Queue: 3 jobs
Job 1
Amino acid sequence: MNTTTILLLLVSILIAAGVSFYQYLYTRAQGANWRSKVKSRSKVTLLLAFLRFFSVFGLLLLLINPIITRKTIETVKTPLPIVIDNSASMVDLKSDKQALELFEKLKDNSALNDKFEVQTYQFDEDFLPSDTIDFKGTQSNIDVVAKSLKNIYKNQTFPTILISDGNQTSGEDYVFGFNPNNKVYPLVVGDTTTYLDLRVTQLNVNKYAFHKNKYPVEVFLNYSGTKSINASFKISQGNSVLNEQTVAFSPSKKSATLNVLLPANNVGLQILKATISSKEQEKNTYNNTKNFAVEVIDQKTEVALISDMAHPDLGAIKRAIETNAQRKVTILKPNQVSSLENYNILILYQPTVAFKSVFEKNANAKINTWIITGNDTDFNFLNQNQSQFTFKMSSQKEDYLASYDSQFNLFALDNIGFEQFPPLENPFGTITAKGNTNTLLSSTIRNIATNQPLLTFNEEQGKRSAYLFGENIWKWRSDNYLAKKDFVDFDIFLDKTIQYLASNNARKSLVVNHERFYNSGEGIEITAQYFNKNYELDEKARLTIAVTNTKTKQVKNYDLLRTTNAFQVNLDGLAAGNYNFTVKELNSNSSYSSGFEVLDFDIEKQFVNPDWNKLNQLATQTQGKAYLPNQVDALIKQLSEDESYKAIQKTIVKKSLLVDWVWLLVLLALSLASEWFIRKYNGLL
């Protein structure tokens, strides 16, 4: 308190004492009855004087309202998180009971509880309090432990006990995830004896492949053992072996990476199996096999290249497009086109009046078209038979160089050196776009921009079209070969142009996204969007999904829940097998049906030993130490005697205004009430 407050309190005491003295102890001539009553009740008078003193002083104290300071001492212990692995691999390695015993022993140890604030957690794919330890987690993510502890104990120094086999199946590398300033003491459970074991560790493959192509498969193999062996690796589909080879392992060569090319001969979902085996006996053979799947897509694009003249461009375009095995180009004259139903794309090379029947047929077929003009093009005919551009051309020929537009965004394409390619020839004139176009290449004449397109794209009412204003594109392909010694860049450029024209951009009211296969234990997520007639996302749609197991015929129904810009359902927990499903929008009865397969793959059964090396590396990285189960007492002693972890005593100073003290108001009320009652009882009122 400051001096002013102390003086005010002294004055308040004097005032309260004076009032109580004057009221009850100082007697004036007020009649014989009053004096006689006061003298006969000296004890009651003193009590009343005290109550009056307390009441007056309390009221004055509230008016002064001094700040009350209180000091308390609090002991803060260092936190000690004890984290246990709750994944299914603990059961497979027969270490679950041992881990639980160690967990209980550490949690209830009096020495640790006296020194630390012991807090217990569990983890599998998530980090949770240790409420229900059942060892049924389908994934092991030790990295989530590191991240969670950093968030819970920010800016604190503390040790961590990690009871685990160290086998991680998801997440980032946990060795460098923990704070290096906080020691980690892994308690490694499981049989650390080295057994001979072959394992398909990882398999990388694209989910989709094109029919009649070959697709790559990257396989990572691991070996654990003390002698040299030859293992047989093969990839099979049903009873057919697609690839087989021998892989040598030794104590010094414990891993191998294989790159295999497999043929995509059949359309549809292809289930394959990668297997490694040897003549040696293994403790765990489950990890010798890994199933995987590839969906082979038949995206054969039939292209009609229609021309009424012979030109080197025709051969160059055909060869460039057909470098993709999914494309087939047929060169036709206009009078040879009887029907367009067998074609996905039309390339009209320098159209003239002879193309009239082709344009008439395509008016009904609405096939995406690429028009290439040149010196022999009839531009008056084009003005009458297309609506995207107006041509005002002269009879004078001109050479047009290309200028790449980096803002083009219809599809991803790098600049392959278009500005250095030879010029294309086209009649000089004005080309005016009637609608919205996306220009990939603009034209220049002797490095002067014409502000006119050279290669441009257009989409109108769901139909896509492309225009190239110039002939002699064959020179571009040749020039690309002279510069790069191959045709790859030019052929990719033409392939992406064809891919854009081949895409079907038809809009559907119900769009469902899903994979064709999932691994058991993984999250199975299906999302859907429903659009109204204006193709606006309908947030009030009611979507349901019915999932049917094709073998057992069991049907499960779910509602799709609204997310930010879609509807979503999680079908976790489905057993391995084939499933058909139907998504329905209940208000409109729109539906989408498809299927997927859940592959039999339990990642938690891939291990034969705890990963002692990895956990020991974690301990070294954090300046801790790895322990075995029979060394738990040594771990307890290490932590109990570690002088770097001491309890901290904190002095906590709390300041509050006296007016906030409710009990003072209560005491004042009691004092005033008591004084009134005593006076009333003794006839002093």
Job 2
Amino acid sequence: MGAARTDSARSRRRRAVPWLVLGLWIAVLALASPFASKLSDVQRDRAVDYLPASADSTQVAKIQDRLPGGEATELVVVYHRDGGLTAADRATAADQIAEIAGAHTLTARPEAVPSRDGTTLMYPVASTEPGQDEEARDELVGAVRDVAQGGDGLSVEVGGAGALATDASEVYNSLDGPLLYTTAGVVALLLILIYRSPFLWLVPLAVAGIADYLSMGVAYGLNQWFGTSVSGQSSGIMTILVFGAGTDYALLLVSRYREELRRIERPYDAMAAALRGCGPAVLASSGTVAAGLLCLLAADLNSSRGMGPLGTVGVLCALAAMLTLLPAILVLLGRRVFWPLVPRYGSTPKARRSLFAAMGGSAGRRPLTVLAGGAALLGALALGSLNLPGDLKQEDSFTSKPEAVAAMETLAAAYPERGTQPISVIAPTDRADAALAEARDTRGVESAERGRSGGGWTEITVIAAAPPQSAGESATIEALRDNLDGSYVGGASAEQIDLKDTNSRDTMIVVPLVLLSVLLILVALLRSLVAPLLLVAAVVAVWGAALGIGGLVFEPLFGFEGTDPGLGLLSFVFLVALGVDYGIFLMHRMREESLTGAEPAEAALTALRTTGGVIASAGLVLAATFAVLTNMPMVQLVELGFVIAVGVLLDTFLVRTYLVTSASVALRRRVWWPGPLSRAPEEPAPVPERQTVGA
């Protein structure tokens, strides 16, 4: 009687728990919904949101915000005719500029600057009307462009830092919808091919979408409570991580659940066994990704530091959804969700020739040869990084040329003898006259004019003799910083210098932190030192090879004129954190097999045979989600997506399949040193003759 009551209670619990989990998720989404819809409202893509926190250019941007009228929006209206401007062209330009000046609050009356060859006329226009309001800035740029119109051979383009920021903002704002839909579509297609089921693919995809919505609400909360910066780049990467990492966890869980359904009758019990089996690996996997991303908090670059918490939010929301909501839905749907390939209780899967068994066999027969060959290949590919193009200039940041970039190119061709982009100097007001004199005397300075004052600071606008973002202009900026003690030197070109320098500094700090945090998690999970070192060395080699492949194709194939300064650091963080995932899946299963008494080589090959398919599927999904970025209109996103996608594929099909497996076979039990598994005997002890006879 008591046993019957116990069975009845268990049955009720099996039915109640999935519904309870589903109800909790509905409540959580109801709470998050008002905040998720507001994330786009706090997304900022101003220069100060990307700049180094402590750099001169950041201080200039912050002080300019506090000057009378707030931050100035700087534009350049460019009039050009190939055969030379006519008198009518000059009159048209003067009338249009007068109309702009009459309709908007400008910091100074725009003065025409003609080119020496007579083909171009530029009018620098600066307005404090928008202040820090990005929408107002975009409206100002649009209004100026509406007035500044050409025709009959006269081209008119509106450029400058303000116009470039507007064009970049339009690009980032256009990413949200296409990025989400494209990512979801790619994941859906791959899941259909992987599961070969008309229904099963919908479940992890829907759960990933729910996790993405939750992550938006949490990201908004971080912005409101802790001031975490949210940019178009960081929110886009967060979506990629939710779908990529979340689908990886789903693939591992569903694969293990399918196995358990063949040997356990009730779906609830099978899911419980699946969670016990793969749960530690999934938790450790998400832990390494989160730990690696949180190391970005040590970065001085605002864009990198903000990406750390948002990426972590994406991964943790995906983890929570895939370990709670996904199991609940699968249990409620039962075995029929796998139709037509339903795993029947007591059945065995059809014996098929396993590709990964064949791969593992080749690695097992000649482990040292495979290991040496793979290492040589990765090293050769890494040499391609020496061919990476130089630093990416602002005008080269777009895959399709916006108007602001076209204006910059026109100015560069028409004014080769002088700068066309102002350098902003912020000096203490009591030393402004001396700073102005020193600026004018600085080598490489074409002109310097005093501007607004307020709050103890005075703005000085400097024009360099050299073209924007050239070696000559960079030297002028460095000279101004050396000569003007107590002053700050900023502006668009100074920002690019600070971005490059800060990325170098951040790399020196963040890279060791990422390696150390990932290594400690692996040591705790695998209870070994050799295996974690092996996995970390493997992902570092993959990063170098992926970056090298980028160096071989970025300029020759894609036509990119430069490389984003943050590419090395961000690709390292993502490839190390995400790449270790697959090593965890493989090594955790290898450790399970070793604990059952399997010999080292057998444990390694069994782990590859049983997890190879799901790791390959997960790698394809993750690579495809990051490959979505290669279709975006920003060069830095294309480069980042390409390097990570290539690195994930290398990690999945070369490193995990061949190199880690062959190294594990070659090291045998030493791979678990100094853990207890390393001390187990390699061969079973010989049985004494008398025991054999007695038996």
Job 3
Amino acid sequence: MQIKPRQHLLDVWQAVGRHSFDSGGWAWGKWGGQSSVADTERLLCLLYPATEIPAFRLDDPDTTQEDVQKALRKAGGRLEIPVNVLTATAEFMRNHTGDDKSPTFAGGYYFHSRDSAQDLTPEQRELGVVDSYSMSVTLCLATLGFLKVYETKTRRTEVLELIRELRTATSTRLTAAMVSLLRSFTVNVFDMDSSQGRTLSELLGQGRLSQRMVMQRFQRRFAALRAIVGESLVLGVDVAEGLADPNQLFECGWAWSLVEDAPEVETDEPIGSQPPGVANAVPYLYFTVVALDGIADLFSDRTLTLGLLNAEQQKLAEALRLRWEITQQYWSAIARFDSDCWPLEDIPWRTTGQQLESEYFSLSVAAILVHDLVRRRATDDDLTRTVGIMERLAERGRITSRMTGTDKVVELHNPGIILPLQGSERTGPPMQWRMNDFSAQLLKRTIQLCTLSRNPVSHDRLLRLAEDIFGHMWRRRIGGGDGVDLWDNVHAVYPESPATDHPVSWTITERVTECLVSAHQLYSQSPIRSPELGVLARALLSESAHLLGNEQMESAPAADGRRGMDLRGIEVKLRRARQLVDEQPGTACALTLDVLGQLDALARARDAATQGE
């Protein structure tokens, strides 16, 4: 199925508008306010495309395009849409603020009890989670950028008052989210003989290297990074001492929530009290990927161009950027530990902290690798090998291959991979987190890789894979009822999967929206330039120019005659071909071949006329 970013985004917006707006006002419904994660994802389905794609912008009513306005007609007219979107965002900020006026980041109904007979306590559902911290960064930056433009387009007193209130609340939430991300980052140091050490050693050695050889390579590979982590980050005493010992292994990344005993971050921003941490100091691949996605928005061109961060937030952003770069370098090096046979190519990946094994974790490591490939402008070899991994994951996940009747891979999509949240037992029944967005995450990383690739063969493989995965995701839209045309109807593609009774999955819907924005960016960039086509285009241009000059030596044609009009058209096409030869050599070839055909037709016509005489 071909990805048509504009049309498909309009379809998503129409479905979101039908579900979330009632007579122009935002309707949160039964599940609204029950999870800050779900509510953030829901708002991002509108605000993310509206601030990332110029054609979808809503902050300047005078430029709102007709098809966009039609898709959001449930939200009101051209002038009412931005006001109603901002009103919904202001409600979100108020709904997810504590009694002490500090922002809250509750996981809510996204948290599950490990014991089906024992429900979670209200206090547990109010615990913050990295998903909320990360996506709050994206939402707040989108909102601040929206406000910056829309403030200059309205003179209504009540709207300007709403803008001032929302800007203050959004800036406070952004700071609180950044502080929480800093306090959720962790470095886990462990001995080679521990269960974590043995798992990591087996993962890196792949049955080809002994523990001693793995340790020696690890020491060499991570000596510089170990020094940076130990010297640049504020860590606990035990962690700092462990990092100083080269015979200790380590991992870095984000825990599922605030880490137990994480020190408070000094800030002058009015974010209220900083709650104590509960999570064990163990990185999770899933939450690490989520954090990296949100932190990247702090350094986007849009954030820098609009100047969305204040001085205090810029300091926090630099601290997060250091952790962002360290984490990418670490996991990218782990994924490619042995250049002959990458550990990442040995699917499925096994986690050290939770001792779980799944294709989902292979995808998580691949996602971090994609981040790193984008950051350091990867080689063609790295890209080609990563393309192969994506294709294998799509096949093993039964997205591009047939699901058998007894295939347990269906659990990857429904109910999804279950993560035990280590440390949650301190607050009540042990908690867990469910991840069922494998297909959407795979689509997102495939499109990102396709945007990065400048190799025609790899680019074509990735584009075909992305179209296959997108077709799979599009079939999973809900066919009827409250969430019609939203996600997620797993049974549409996996009829044998267990029955589900869940609300609309804003997680999947938001991921698909992100993918469509990424696809828009993919098609907006210049096509890949082929050196071979460039050489051919220039050769064709040379021949065409010579033949045109020869044709123009003939007797001057009448200005309004057929031959004169043909020659003027040929000149226009050749000028256009010369303009495109560097950026679009294939198009230049097509234009020049057409010119050569016309010149040959003129020559044959002249020869026929001469012979007739």
